[in-house]
Design goal:
Blueprint lengths: L1 E6 L3 H11 L5 E7 L2 H10 L4 E4 L2 E2 L2 E2 H10 L5 E6 L4 H9 L4 E4 L4 H20 L6 H9 L13 H13 L5 E2 H8 L3 H13 L3 E6 L7 E6 L2
Parallel strand pairs: 1-2, 1-3, 3-6, 6-7
Antiparallel strand pairs: 4-5, 8-10, 9-10
Helix pairs in contact: 5-6, 8-9
Length: 223
């Protein structure tokens, strides 16, 4: 079981991040920290494997926290989830060992890709011994790329667009026609993505039977 610390000073965002992680049976959110002091209190108390971290934390700064973590010799993995989009800051975060960088607003699919990268890196380290041969080293670094495979006809960017819209409007039920209008995607194309999201348990589907005509499906994002 991997232990996760969420570092976020907005309680609502922290709660959403925590909910997003509930689908993973091998991840445990041990706590939520709001600033630098709380981060290091939790690092001392728990054996943290992964940190999901914002950059803007009031008087604290996520990248500076990462630098301090590394200065103490800690190799805890970190994924940034933040509104920060300055290329030099992103480069700085990666240089100090961030394994991924998600710019808000983000989709569940994009977070899944980041978590998948964390899993793959750690699986490789677990199965290797104290040293690596070249093939193992190549496999470790190849995990930096998004290896997610989608069914034929499912485009990653289109999927992220649909999922982001549904996640931002998670309280509403949507039929395909209304979603098609909102997203400017043909209903035929959209139905492929809706079926895929239902198959991956990201959408709840509810069928409404009217007095006249065919039954109609309504969809709701449940993360």
């Amino acid at each position: 079981m991997y232990k996760v610390l969420i570092v976020e000073d907005d309680p609502m965002v922290a709660s959403i991040n925590s909910i997003f992680l509930e689908k993973y049976s091998n991840l445990e959110v041990v706590n939520i920290a709001k600033n630098e002091d709380e981060v290091f209190q939790n690092l001392e108390k728990y054996s943290i494997d992964l940190i999901l971290c914002d950059v803007y934390l009031g008087e604290s700064n996520g990248i500076e926290i990462l630098k301090k973590i590394r200065s103490k010799g800690m190799l805890t993995d970190i994924i940034f989830i933040t509104a920060l989009n300055e290329s030099n800051k992103i480069k700085e975060a990666v240089a100090f060992g961030a394994i991924d960088f998600l710019i808000k607003p983000y989709s569940q699919a994009r977070l899944d890709a980041a978590i998948g990268k964390f899993f793959k890196k750690n699986e490789i380290l677990i199965k290797t011994k104290s040293t690596m041969v070249q093939e193992e080293c190549d496999e470790y670094f190849s995990s930096d790329s998004n290896q997610t495979e989608y069914p034929k006809g499912i485009n990653e960017k289109t999927l992220e667009k649909i999922e982001l819209f549904l996640s931002e409007n998670r309280k509403k039920w949507w039929n395909a026609n209304k979603l098609s209008e909102e997203l400017n995607i043909s209903s035929v194309t959209l139905n492929k993505y809706l079926k895929y999201l239902v198959s991956t348990n990201k959408l709840t589907v509810n069928t409404s039977y009217g007095e006249v005509g065919r039954p109609e499906n309504f969809y709701k994002y449940h993360y």
